[in-house]
Hints:
Layout: H1 2-33, H2 43-66, H3 76-97, H4 106-146, E1 149-151, E2 157-159
Antiparallel strand pairs: 1-2
Helix pairs in contact: 1-2, 2-3, 2-4, 3-4
Amino acid sequence: MKEWLRRIRGAVGMGLIWGAGWGAVGLLIALFLDPHGAIDDAWVATLGIPGFLSGVVFSAVLRIAEGRRGFHELSVPQVGAWGALAGLLLGVLPFVLGTPTAALPPWLLGLVTVVPITVLSAVSASASLAIARKAEDGGRLERVADRRKVVGAGGEAEELGDGR
């Protein structure tokens, strides 16, 4: 039971991080493309909500596809492809569940919906792996610094740090 809760917490965490990142992109769009607020200012929610959902779907896709392999064992292109698949699944979902009611033709509506979500998901997945690797490398550097050796007063080498 605890393992399932940990996985759910991880998926929700990934969704929150992606939602915040996509929401930030929405904020930039609102600030630069519409600085006077002439268009409805829903860009943050318009991108933040699909970002959250895409992060959760990505976590599920990655868990199903890669099983017990650790995040650090995967390549950036491989994770990007899983992210693109998650975005594609999420982007196609509204068309599978219902009938589009927009004035745009269905193929154009699908294009402007599915492509951005797929691309943002692939970029977010790749960035997530890159950030995780940077964090892991930072921790490794700290451990190496803790184990540095110095020459003591008697000429013998002493190890500094906690000795992990």
